[in-house]
Amino acid sequence: MTENKTSRRTRKPKPVAAAPKEQPEVNERVLDVQRWLARTYKFETPTSGVADKRTIEDLVKALQTEIAIEVTGTFDEETKKNAPSITFESLPKFVRILQAILIIRGRAIPFDGIFDHALRGAVENWQTTHKLPTDGIAGPETLCTLFN
User: Fold this and answer.
1) Is residue 48 part of a domain?
2) SS3 label, residue 86
3) Calpha distance 36→108 (Å, rounded)
4) Distance (Å, rounded) from C-alpha 129 to C-alpha 21?
5) Is residue 45 part of a domain?
6) Dihedral over Cα of 97, 100, 102, 104: its sign
7) Which residues span the domain enclosing 129?
8) 76-133, pLDDT tens digit by residue?
9) Minimal CA–CA distance to 98: which of 127, 77, 69, 72?
10) 105 lies in a domain?
11) Looking at residue 5, what is its pLDDT?
12) Is residue 9 part of a domain?
């Protein structure tokens, strides 16, 4: 008697399609900030439209450049000590840096270098949220919390 050997076919499992990685949504306001940094300061800021650590570092570098201290990209004690208080009377270059970091932090404000009531309100909101004295002036302590 002959044994009939049948080979069983094993089916290869169908490959499971990997779920597409969700790309972060491009934020046009963040993209404006990144383009401004690249154009104004000649930084190699990624222009992805996504708020990221590199964009924040480049904003710190912009501030350090404007206050004429060593440019490190880290908001350290030297930066805090030399940082200006940004108010209605501040130069537009400082106001723009403040607007830029607030935009990166998700605030919907103009990016025009003008310290107006909307910007003061955004600063006050940030100060309240972070349990800082609420005066609407972006002094060194407020800037430190924004950049860190």
Assistant:
1) yes
2) strand
3) 17
4) 33
5) yes
6) negative
7) 28-147
8) 999 999 999 999 999 999 999 999 999 999 999 999 999 999 999 999 999 999 999 9
9) 127
10) yes
11) 55
12) no
